[in-house]
Amino acid sequence: MDTLPSFCRARVLILGVGNVLFGNDGFGPQVIDYLTRHYVIPEDIYAIDVGTGARKVLFTVTLSQTRPQELVIADAVDWGQEIGSVLEIPVELLPVTKVDDFSLHQVPTSNMLRELQDDCGVKVSVVVCDVGEIPQVIEPGLSSAIEAAVVTAGEKMASRYELRLLLP
Amino acid sequence: MGKTLVIQPVSRIEGHAKITIQLDDAGDVADARVNVIELRGFEKFCVGKPVEEMPRITTRICGVCPWSHHLASAKANDAVFGVEPAPAGVKLRRLCNSIAYMEEHILHFYILGGPDFVMGPSSDYAARNVIGIVGAVPDVAKQVVKVRHMCAKMLETIAGKSIHPDAAVPGGFSKPLQKEERDALLPMAQECLELAKFSIKFAKDNIFPKYLDAVKTIGTMTSGFLGTVAADGALDLYDGKLRMMYSDGSYEDFATNDYADYIGEHVEDWTYLKFPYAKKRGPFLLEDNAPSLYRVNTLARINVADYIPTPLAQKELEEFRANFGRPAQLTLLYHWARLIELLYNAETAVQLLNDPEITSRATRVKVTPRAARGVGVVEAPRGTLIHDYTTDDNGILTHVNLIVATCQNNSAINLSVRQAAKTLIKSGNYDQGTLNTVEMAIRAYDPCLSCATHKLDGSIPVKLDIVGPDGKLLDTLTNQ
Fold first, then answer.
1. Cβ neighbours of B26 (radius 10 Å)
2. % of chain A at pLDDT higher than 70
3. Is B148 close to A107, i.e. CB distance below 8 A?
């Protein structure tokens, strides 16, 4: 049996990051849900809802000698932009080291993304949606603006990787 | 005027926290507090939901230790439904627990806490990371990587997925293990065992001696300990009775259902995280050696257990106790205890995979909704985790209470940080290495703060208090 987790062997790894229990913070996982419900995901692409467990996967990928060529992170941010706006940002724009003044969840995640790109040769792209404030108490469900943003982000990814629509 | 240093956030622990260190006029530490800046509301959210959904929902609380929440919830479900889960199902749960433990303990020792020791606390922050470790000890890193891959692969094979598991169900486990799967997993578990054996030897030969002074000085405190033991007092991370051991080594055992009789929860207005304390030993006091003060996590479990039921880990326990006594109190010994547990879990995984019953098809029993209360307790890697559910006749939740591991170490983390800061910062002198060493006191507890917070009404804003030498509030920074 192959001892590598499946996501290490993928050519493209797409991670949906966020907590579906906290309103629009569920943007990332919902992008994965959208992709898997509407498109055929080919064998060389691995799309996974990692919730708030992105670190587990990123550690494993960072330390692996077999890695995806491309890593795509879908996540929610609160940067004061128009709510629902979807941006793709280069990893260079991620905050450095300990300063984590935006809501990309666990601090080391942003560090590891840099390490993956700079030291491991993985092309990293981060697709973020400005969701405004995340509720402070549990409140599942996306707002209509973020539901639309999920479709926008999902369609962009489907187009980039030429995913085939699932037959009805 | 006293000066306040803020270290925010603490890197390489799960979730977000900030440390506030207050200096007095002489530049010495007057006080230090660890504040949590996240907010949850999980228990209230769960009321009204079918109880059988909880093992799946609770893995969403936090992606860091989903298996512990998953298993505690499944056990609480067993209790609510009033069933004894199928023996093979219990063994599969225990196997997953051991593998998840190995994954976590390896992660913590080599990656989260490891950089402090392997690279040194004064090394450049940019080098104290995953790649830094690989560069410093490439051969070790290679094996660590391989075994972590195997742990993820084993969980994927046994349970279908490792991130948000759903294989443990009320009454057992949903997916029997195939014989060919068991045959493929056994060599992996044996390789995990080899790494566990190597790790504790590597640490004893190369790391612990170098940092023995740090072990004896950083974050030291005296407390009681809470952990789970089997009926005969053996270390057990999945099931058993709770044991509250006091600082003098005396202890009380109690059934998990009775936890509220022994554990109180104190609230402070400067943090969202509650402060559990040993109720039977008097009021809550945030003071070193307070009678009601206790700790959880690896060192606690190693202390409360009479013995470890696997031979290699038992041998390590005997050596540990010969060196540090029982109960051992030095905070950085959490790292040593973590490696003993790593060994125990690796031995356990091999034992379970060699057990013929592990491939039984009978992995679950039927359950029927009823009005009842059920308490599920497991030892999460970070400490004792309690899920307490009450349902109505239809199995709908009417009450939920969770006490998570990091919460139970809240007092200890604060006291250890205060002690570390007082030891290291004198006359206003500090540097990056000093501040990181303060953080080391926190990392020893391997805290996960993202699921430790659960303030229901959401009425208190996130704030930072700046307090002067006379105790008066000088300023408040708030997020509102």
1. 12
2. 88
3. no
